[in-house]
Design a protein that fits this description.
single chain, alpha/beta, Rossmann fold, eight-stranded mixed beta sheet, 51% helix, tRNA-binding, tRNA(Met) cytidine acetate ligase, tRNA(Met)_cyd_acetate_ligase, EC 6.3.4.-
């Protein structure tokens, strides 16, 4: 069975994802689709709007055959490590290819871009350092370095200012650095850009646009046209149970308490907390009534919104620098869900998978997995607070979803 891998967050699974899924399978001429999906906290440093089990159900209903979890260590990491973790897992589970959505839509410019940076790494790093000395943020410095190189060595390259192109580049970089045989494919994004707001009458919207629409109004009907029926029904069921979707605004009282209860020195233990910002975090937390007002106080030229959110995610979950440095590569494959075809694939390939394939978490002793379980517990705490409904699934007790 030919398997194509995809890297997803599905926050939530929408019509654009359904299109990408269909095209990935078609372009790869694959029999099944394997998705490596972020858990309850995401790459831009924020909680997923609904938990990973609900999003797994959306994925399976949408046509994914196997859903495995991208561990917290990678799902909340900068793009380079996010991609490294994801491609490592897709390679380990036996994917013949991986497909990603991009603004560019053609694979050769990605390969050209990788060769440009890889062949001129010393010069590239020098341009980055030069830009950083001016006070520019790291992402802006990366873009500056890329612009300088691409002008010096003209060819057809991707636009690295576009968010999906950036991730696509890092997927290819990871595959090359891991010396993997997995083949890269790209699917052009259609209709809605990554940050575009929801457009009236549209059938495809970005996940960001959907979340913003739901934040502005609790009326789920406002996003019904851009979601498959199953996704809409799962969101409606979630909202009926808990009365809210997860976001930093809904988590703010817990995050605020977490920040204030620490001393500045204690905050420096956590991953990505650097350069004296710990004092500003505590000061702003004491005087902010909302997450958005807090962020406006601490955002600066040097710290992007995403970098700050990742930092706060690690503080909230208690993930330390020492823990981060202790992990070098994925230690397991956590199975979240599978279709009948997915189950058949695993039956055929299980003996060839080099990592432990985990379906019964309670029986495992794995430090990377322990981080995932802890992250799920603190996520659930914030969702369940103030509700009388049944608690969310206990992560260590929940078996893979069979669809």
């Amino acid at each position: 069975m030919q398997a194509v891998g995809i890297v997803v967050e599905y926050n939530p699974f929408h019509n654009g994802h359904a299109y990408h899924l269909e095209q990935a399978k078609k372009v790869a001429q694959a029999d099944i689709v394997i998705a490596v999906m972020s858990g309850n906290f995401l790459q831009r440093g924020e909680p997923a709007m609904v938990d990973k089990w609900t999003r797994t159900k959306m994925a399976l209903a949408g046509g994914v055959d196997i859903v495995i979890e991208l561990p917290y260590v990678y799902s909340t990491a900068p793009a380079t490590d996010f991609a490294k973790g994801a491609i490592s897992l897709l390679s380990a589970i036996g994917c013949d290819s991986f497909a990603f959505g991009s603004e560019d839509g053609a694979i050769q410019p990605f390969m050209n871009t990788f060769q440009l940076i890889n062949n001129h790494r010393t010069e590239y790093d020098a341009f980055i350092k030069k830009s950083l000395k001016t006070g520019a943020s790291y992402p802006k410095s990366l873009h500056y370095a890329y612009e300088q190189l691409s002008q010096k060595f003209p060819a057809t390259y991707i636009d690295l200012a576009q968010p999906n192109n950036i991730l696509g580049f890092h997927y290819i970089e990871a595959a090359m650095m891991l010396d993997s045989n997995i083949k890269p494919l790209t699917i052009p994004r259609i209709a809605a850009g990554y940050h575009d707001a929801l457009q009236e009458g549209a059938s495809i919207a970005s996940a960001t646009g959907i979340r913003k629409a739901l934040a502005a109004t609790s009326a789920l009907q406002s996003v019904q046209d851009v979601l498959p029926k199953a996704s809409f029904d799962y969101l409606a069921d979630w909202y009926e149970k808990y009365g809210k979707f997860a976001s930093w605004e809904t988590f703010w009282p817990f995050l605020q308490f977490t920040l204030i209860r620490h001393t500045p020195n204690e905050l420096t233990r956590y991953a990505e907390v650097t350069e004296g910002i710990e004092h500003a975090l505590i000061k702003a937390a004491k005087t902010s009534l909302s997450f958005s007002s807090f962020m406006e106080k601490i955002k600066s030229k040097r710290y992007t919104w995403t970098r700050l959110q990742r930092m706060l995610t690690h503080i909230y979950t208690g993930f330390t620098k020492e823990q981060l440095q202790s992990f070098d590569a994925p230690s397991n494959i956590r199975l979240l869900g599978m279709s009948k075809n997915g189950q058949a694939y695993l039956g055929m390939h299980k003996k060839d998978i080099p990592l432990p394939l985990i379906s019964r978490v309670a029986a495992m002793d794995d430090t990377m997995l322990a981080v995932d379980i802890h992250a799920a517990e603190v996520y659930n705490l914030s969702i369940e607070h103030g509700t009388k409904e049944q608690s969310l699934p206990k992560d260590y007790q929940t078996p893979p979803i069979r669809f």
